[in-house]
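seq as requested:
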Amino acid sequence: MTSVNFDPKVFDTPEFWRNPYPHLKVLRDHFPVYHDELHGLWYITRYDDVVEAFRDNQHYSSKNLERSMALVFGTTMMQFDGEEHTKRRNIVAPEFSGRRLEPILPIIEKNTQELINRFSATAAEDLAQDFQAKGEVELIDAFSSRLPVKVIIDMLGLPQEDHDLFHEWYPAMMAGLSGTPEEREQGIESNRQFHAYIDKLVDERSKRPGEDLISKLCIAEVDGARMSKEDIKAFASLLLVAGGETTDKAIGNMWVHMMENPEQFEEVKRDPDLFDRVFTETMRITPPAGSQQRDVIKPVDMYDQTIPVGAEAHFSIFAANHDERVFDHPDEFDIFRNDLYFGRELRSGYFDSGQASHLGFGLGKHFCVGYQLARSEAVIGSKALLKAMGSPRVKAGGKAHIQVAGPRNEPPKLELEFDVV
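struct tokens:
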């Protein structure tokens, strides 16, 4: 029996949200299944156990999302299990992977270039003209938080001139998922405003569909089933928030890691295609989402403990991605590590060669449908940034810190300077 103690009050401290990994290692090593009585959660923290839990639809249910996500977004496919989830996912998933993604790539490239043009000295009205002239930029606000929203606006066929509205709505909706009661109310109100904004568009495109994603969702069907109007609006909300938040954090964190690992950055500058590896390792070491939670619908026996029916299980992605049982030196950023699978994201955990996939997009049936879009945005956007800035560095006296997912995360900053050509 372990003599190590763990105080769940640590989960409420700023120190935990700045750097959760040492605390999660204590859980992995000594309490691989930990009952947090203070917050009413059961933590599962080892990689193999988290992978198995993600696959297990017999003991765990995603109905818990009705208590958080559905309150803000409305009903989405993420909160369904079994046949209902599969039916809804099959309607939308083809639009986000494989050949269906190819028409979206020019949109990503176009929006990336539009943002890069903010660095051009010829665009007098553009804020980024000052960045180009000064040779400095705060990358999060000027780029990583803007690119994914612009891409999603184009995908949904919404007017880019309303970008600031969407940019205001999506962080409020995200904060509403796990924040204070006031933030929850603001998230619900922002989602209501977004739904009112697109309500007539859904009606119009049901009758006169175009090539945008809303139109495709209006007419798409699987086994004779179509998404309802409320389904479409809720999915658009989910796409705006999940797509924006994931890609925003990924790009920002990729560049912080590059600044903190100059030797690896030199390799990337010689071969920008290595940004694919930068993205994958970033999703492992600093994933945008720290966990997923499930309702327990059948008793789960693990490590001489039983998680009872009605409990809420916390699948810790942060902890699993840093499990030294799977990844050598898991707290070190290394785009050349040989224990991580660097190809297309996996839904199964392990690749045939024994390499493990990161769990940043979840796993199994609830694997993130937007994974390929997020990867493409982050890699294409980062290549364009590298071309624009050449050899950026952290501004003297400037800030560069990782975005850690959670209700108490610090506002991200990445203040760079570069030589003006």
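The first helix runs from residue 14 to 18.
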